[in-house]
Amino acid sequence: MQRRSNAYHISVLAVLMAIVIIQNIVPFFGYIPLPGLSITTIHVTVILAAVVLGPRDGAIIGGAWGIIAWIRAFVAPTSPLAPIVFTNPLISVIPRILVGLIAGWVFIWFQKRHQKVLGMTLAGVAGALTNTILVLGLIGLLYSHQAAGFYQVNLSKLMPYLLTIVASNGIPEAILAGILTPLIGTPLLRFKK
User: Fold this and answer.
1) pTM for the whole structure
2) Which of 3, 84, 115, 177 has the fewest other C-beta atoms within 10 Å?
């Protein structure tokens, strides 16, 4: 039984890792480019890894996403701002690792209280917002002049502008993750048993 459980664990980890790689390579699958920004869908895969396999494996999948985003910033950036900011691992890697950790911890907390579906929904929302808030917050903190120039806003208006992106971009990403995580995670958890 333990071998079967380990095989399931490794299989799901490998499939989710492959999905993250595909989402980073196939256009419009992991990043949907819009003028000035790109909507991310990869966080859903990281959150699912955290819910189904635990925070550690969620962090591994998130770390893979971050490393791929870091490499892409050098060779095939997803936006004109990416080569400036995502070449810094504090922005490209660390927030993505934290997506897996935070989503996994949120799910575990609710699972212990026998609220799996609510836990999956809130893990999805928390994971998505972790990515959006940390990435945009670090861009505003570490690259304020470059970001203000890129977004063509006065430096004093950069933070309100970034908060607008959180609202217009981050909230839809959080809603998407909050809906998809229980829809996909419930059957995966059932199969895990």
Assistant:
1) 0.90
2) 3
